[in-house]
Amino acid sequence: METTFEQLEVAITGKIGVITLNNPSKHHALSTALIDEMCAALEEMLYRQVRVVILRAPAGSKVFSAGHDVRELPTNGRDPLTYDDPVRRVIRMIELFPAPVIAMVEGTVWGGACELVMSCDLIVAGDDSTFAVTPAKLGMPYNISGVQNFLNTGGMPLCKEMLFTAQPMGVQRLVDQGIVSHAVPRAELESLTRRMAEQIANNSPLVISLLKEELRLLSASHNLGPETFERVQAMRRLVYDSKDYQEGIKAFFEKRAPQFQGE
Ligand code: YXS
């Protein structure tokens, strides 16, 4: 393989590609550098015509990914989650990737990493994994396509509970909602994922690619008019211009609970 990766391990064996997050000192936070590498790895896999991609953290990880790299979030009144945000870029790439991407989750998943995992086609997880969707804890004006992604994966009540409480949720709740396909002891996770990947890889790649696109189009078919979109953008702007947003980021770095005033 020609591309070199520093924040990932990338392997292609036969028809199966594996991307392993590899920045443990920052708990695999989704920095621009890491996401750029993920996009490059997916490009390579597209070129090599892999039929399934497995996205994982190193075996035994305590944290699957800590989410957006908080150090890269702007605090100068600019929108922190624009269309070109790195996490959004890779999520679009996964959605459009013409073969299934399986998220194999070990450990805790935070913030933007939850959306990344949920944008994968299938999720299998260790039975001790947890998922925390954190914008309300960080004062973050989450964007409408991201919220739609959460909603598309699970039911409205669970989606609201995750978004409003921002607390880690045990994987079994997500299995019950059909968001996670299987939660198994960590020792069984890799063999289960491999088995599933091989079953997919042996099927017709053309049909799977067609089904994936059909499902994507059907699940994204909630059109918003320009006026509604602009109204939501105005609400988001109020959030990223707020003192609470500054407080959320400040509290993160000071390792304390944020004190939100609603202004
Ligand atoms: O102090 P050093 O330099 O060693 O760095 C520490 C942490 O600052 C760093 N780190 C991060 N750096 C950037 N972005 C992050 N998201 C991030 N998370 C961690 O990694 C080093 C080790 O972290 P430390 O000491 O806290 O480790 P720990 O084992 O005590 O705790 C592990 C975690 C995962 C429980 C803890 O690091 C944590 O709570 N991380 C933040 C999780 C989180 O709230 N993520 C959401 C990020 S914002 C986001 O994704 C969205 C935009 S949103 O929230 O809207 O969905």
From TrEMBL:
InterPro entries: ClpP/crotonase-like_dom_sf (IPR029045), Enoyl-CoA_hyd/isom_CS (IPR018376), Enoyl-CoA_hydra/iso (IPR001753), Enoyl-CoA_hydra_C (IPR014748). The keyword Lyase applies. It holds the Pfam family ECH_1. Keywords: Lyase. One of its GO terms (biological process) is fatty acid beta-oxidation. CDD domains: crotonase-like (cd06558). It comes from the Bacteria. SUPFAM superfamilies: ClpP/crotonase. GO terms for molecular function: lyase activity. Belongs to the enoyl-CoA hydratase/isomerase family. This is Methylmalonyl-CoA decarboxylase. It comes from Telmatobacter sp. DSM 110680. The lineage of its organism: Bacteria, Pseudomonadati, Acidobacteriota, Terriglobia, Terriglobales. The gene is scpB.
